[in-house]
Amino acid sequence: MKTKFLKYILIAVFTVFLALNFSSCNNSDFPVDMSYYRLFSPVTFTPGTITATNAQLTFSKVITAEKYIIELSENDSLHFNSITRTVQISADTLTFNTDSMYTVLVDSMKGGIRYSARIKAATNNGTIPESKYDVVTFVTKTEKIIKAVLPEEVTNNSVILRWDATGNNVTRIILISSTDGSSQTFNLTDADKVASMKLIENLSSLTNYTAQIYNADNKRGEITFSTN
Q1: Of 23, 72, 16, whose CA–CA distance to 47 is shortest?
Q2: Three-state SS for 223?
Q3: Greatest CA separation found in the chain?
Q4: What is the pLDDT, as a whole number, of residue 136?
Q5: Backbone dihedral region of 173: left (phi > 0), alpha (psi from -120 to 50 degrees) or beta?
Q6: Of 195, 208, 222, 213, which is closest to residue 154 (Cα–Cα)?
Q7: Number of domains the chain contains
Q8: Angle at 134 between CA 130 and CA 139, to 5 degrees
Q9: 161 lies in which domain range?
Q10: What is the CATH number for 211?
Q11: How far, in whole angstroms, is CA 165 from its chain's centroid?
């Protein structure tokens, strides 16, 4: 009889212990760092083929990401002080390449410029906070849209400069004399741009010149020639 009574006592104590322990777990105030509740960043983000005007960027897939946002800045080496361009790519438009990575082409870039690029993953409606950024930097190749001077188009005091017809985004030509390093700037008219050529006169004879063609501050090509 005593043994049975003791058994009931132990069962009751054990039941109370379990109830108290369960209640304690449910009411715990363990701190939760919500800064970790976000999408992961792409594990890989690298530049691929870089030309004067295009850049291939490759990155890895992020689970549950619905879009990727790439931001570009110029000549600040990963500081991102001024974002010059933002590219948004929907995840459902991407397909894996042979390395099970995504590759996107960013076009209409400037030649001879150091770009900083950063990428983050996001959802369309923000149900999960955006990922942190992954970053990369690269330099585009220098453009060569200006053509070599034809012998019949250079005299002792003049020259005709031509450039590729596709290079209509041009604003000025700078001529630099090798004799004294002096320079002259020639602004391009609408007629010059349509013809993709510029007649420059009043040059010095028997002089080597460097011709540089620009779109605003972006140099798009350079050649050298000599007057007769």
Answers
A1: 72
A2: strand
A3: 129
A4: 98
A5: beta
A6: 208
A7: 2
A8: 135
A9: 151-226
A10: 2.60.40.10
A11: 27
Q: 23-27, 114-118, 184-188 — which is least confidently predicted?
A: 23-27
Q: Evaluate the CA torsion angle 71, 72, 77, 80 in order and state its sign.
A: negative
Q: Which tokens belong to 27?
A: 């009411």
Strands (E), the chain: 45-50, 55-59, 67-74, 83-90, 102-106, 114-122, 134-139, 159-162, 172-177, 183-187, 197-200, 208-215, 218-226
CA–CA dist 161, 148 (Å, integer):
8
Structure tokens at 63: 């689970």
The SS3 call for residue 107 is coil
Q: 3-state DSSP helix/strand/coil percent for the chain, to nearest 5?
A: 20, 40, 45
The model's pTM is: 0.74
Distance CA 5, CA 86 (A): 77
Give phi and psi for 125, each to the nearest 5: -110, 5
Give the rounded percent of residues in the chain with a pLDDT score beyond 70: 84
Is the residue at 192 inside a domain? yes
What tokens appear for 9 in the block?
């006592």
